[in-house]
Amino acid sequence: DMDLCLTLLLICLCTTADGPNGTSSNEEEEGCLSVSRRPQSREPIAAAIQKLGVQLLQNLEPTPEQQNVIISPLSISLALSQLALGAVNETEELLMHHLHANTLPCYHQSLHNILEQLTNNDLQIATRIFLRPGFKPKEGFVTESRQLYDSEPAVLESLEQINEWVENATKGQMSDFLSALPPNLLLLLINAVHFKGEWRARFDPRFTSRGVFYLDDKHMVDVDVMENAKHPLRLFIDNELEAQVASFPFQKAVSLLVVMPLSGQVNVSALSAKLNISRLNNNLPKERVVQVKVPKFKLEYAQELQEVFTKLGLGKMFSSPNLAEMADGPLLVSSVMHKSSMEINEEGAEAAAATTVVISRASSPVFHLTQPFFFALMDDMTQIPIFMGVINNPNPDAPVLQRDLGDKEKMGFPIDKNQQGFFLCENCAICELLLLHDI
């Protein structure tokens, strides 16, 4: 039985000395329910979540300590959207603007309907509000959170309670999420997205061997490389992105989109300026059988998002937001914690790797995941990115080796005509935390 791919977002809210009051407009107006259920309402929601994900990646620079970046645009959008339920006036407008939802009618109800479509046996979404004992949020906020985001409030009793919820939500993949409770804490908003899916082509462990992943034109690392001689794949070279693009199919209408620049380097700023995930999906050709190599890896990523949100223009959330629909008295966001993990092996994975495409007249196409790449785990029906990230080094703990430019990668490998296979999302977790507290 495979474990999860999961994102978790934790938002911390606290109280401040003083602040404005106000009332937000109620979205539950006449006709909103029917508008939000129209199929055409899905596309702008998906585009908004895609855009937020790409913006975050632009501002989450890899570091020597964290060479890879893994986020869940879906999880982050859900957390900020729930926060927007409690916001009024400029704060609500600011959040909706950065969610790219300010021009979308019936946004919350439309997102709710999409969540109902997304949630199936392979994808689960869990949200929980933890309240400090004695803290009373407004009933309207609690009711809307429950109705729209299925977020049941619970009284915060201990640090262990939080960590246990996270561990359960991630099926044991994320333990000890918080080392201590922040001071002056009023409210925690935790969102978890868990994906566990099978892909349609198995990697037979007999064909897994030691290989290399090229970090750049001078350096490489050793990795275990899985091989499949007959993998169903949709792939092409995108001239605008100057990259190879491939889509790995999962069962139940989920796919893994990978973009690997021909340069061998993922310049997120340059890539994101031209990156349109829906366009790439629309340009994908018909599926065909391809020789595939994929590195095995297990990666973790943790990031406090206050700095990146401030850089994007959401700094007011952390200084003087108007959250009057959430509770009486001034509140502010003290922390947005994000944590993720991801594993790919023969049995499965969460978010995948990228590759090189070689088209040979003498043989089947070859797609080898041997260089840095961008990825997005997509729900095919809604085009929502469940996970998104950049993998620069799938084995960051391994020693970096000098690349022998004269030694070309050996492309051939055994072919088993009877290979079937499956791809499971395993050990992928993202955690995000929103904190409200006193000052």
From TrEMBL:
Single annotated GO MF: serine-type endopeptidase inhibitor activity
Domain of life: Eukaryota
Keywords: Signal
Stretches assigned to the Serpin domain: 54-394
Pfam families: Serpin
GO CC, alphabetical: extracellular space
InterPro entries: Serpin_dom (IPR023796), Serpin_fam (IPR000215), Serpin_sf (IPR036186), Serpin_sf_1 (IPR042178), Serpin_sf_2 (IPR042185)
Stretch forming the signal peptide: 1-17
SUPFAM superfamilies xref list: Serpins
Assigned protein family: Belongs to the serpin family.
Name of the protein in its database record: Serpin domain-containing protein
Protein's organism: Gouania willdenowi
